[in-house]
Fold this sequence. Notes:
The chain is an alpha+beta fold. It folds into two domains: 12-85, no CATH class; 103-267, DNA integrity scanning protein, DisA, N-terminal domain (YojJ-like (1, 3-Layer(aba) Sandwich). The chain has helices at residues 17-37, 41-62, 65-85, 87-98, 105-127, 143-146, 158-164, 196-201, 204-215, 244-254; strands spanning 132-136, 150-155, 175-179, 182-188, 219-223, 230-234, 237-242. It has a seven-stranded mixed sheet with strand order 2-4-3-1-5-6-7, with helices on both faces. Strand 5 (219-223) and strand 6 (230-234) form a beta hairpin. It is elongated, with a radius of gyration of 24 Å.
Amino acid sequence: MPSLPFQLIPAFSKLTFTTIVDILIVTVLIYQLLMIVSGRRAASILAGVGVLVLVYLGSAWLGLELLRSILATLAPYTVFALIVVFQSEIRRTLARIGRRRWAGFGSRVKIREFADDILLAMAQLSQTKTGALIVVERDIGLRTFVESGVTLDAMLSRDLLLAIFQKDGALHDGAVIVQGDRVAAAACFLPLSMNPALMRKHGTRHRAGIGVTEEADCLALIVSEETGSMSAVSSGELDQDLTIEQVRNRLNRHFGERRRPGTDLAASQAVPDAGRSPGGDR
Length: 282
C-alpha cells in the first residue's frame, strides 16, 4: 500500500521545556482561530478546505494520481482565495493583536456610565420612527470614519443624539460615532457590507452598520426609519427587532460589563410624539 506523503514521528523521548512551550503556543493559536470563525460563514469555508485536504491525502494514499495532481495544482491558488474570502476577519484579528486590550478600559467605564443616554435616545427615536445609526467605538480606533463626517467632539447626551437625528436636520443622514463619553462626529460615511444576501434584504443604514463592524470591533446600534425597530450589530452579525432592554444587554455584553440591577428602561420616561410620518429606511 502506498505510503503517506508525510510521516508524523512522535519525539516524546526528546520532549523538552521549549517543546512544551512551542506546543502550547500553537494550541492557543489554533484555539483563537477556531473562536474567530466559530458560528460564521468562515467556519463552513474552512470545513470545505479541510475536506479537500482529506481528499488529497486519500488520493495520495490510494494512488489516484490524476486527482492528486489536480488538487496539488490548485493548492497555491487556494491560499490567495482564502486571503480574499477572509480579508475582513484577517483585518479585524491583526488590528486586535496590534492594539492592547487594556487600552480600551477607560472608554468601557465611560460607556457604562453614559449607556442610559444612548438607550433613552434610541427609545424615543424608535417611538417616533426616526432612522438612526450610532456606532460605539471599542478597542479599534474609528478615526478614518470620524474624519469622513462632521467633527463634534461634544459630551454624549440624549438630547444631543435626538437633535442630530432630527429628520429635517443637516446631520440626520450618516452615522454618529461615539468614543467613550463623547460624540466624536456625525453624518459619517461608513463602508457598506457587500454580502449579496444582505443587499437584497436590508437598506443602506443596516448595510452600513454591518459593514463598519466587519472592519472594526465596534458596536452599531440602528433604528429603522420604516418600522421603528431597533437592531444591534457586532462582528458583522445583525440582531433585529430588539427591545430596549435587549439593546442594553448587547451594549453591556459587548463592552464586558455586567447588567446593573434596577435599570430597566422598558418603563422609562414617556417621550413626546414628534408627529412625523414614517419615511423609508435608508
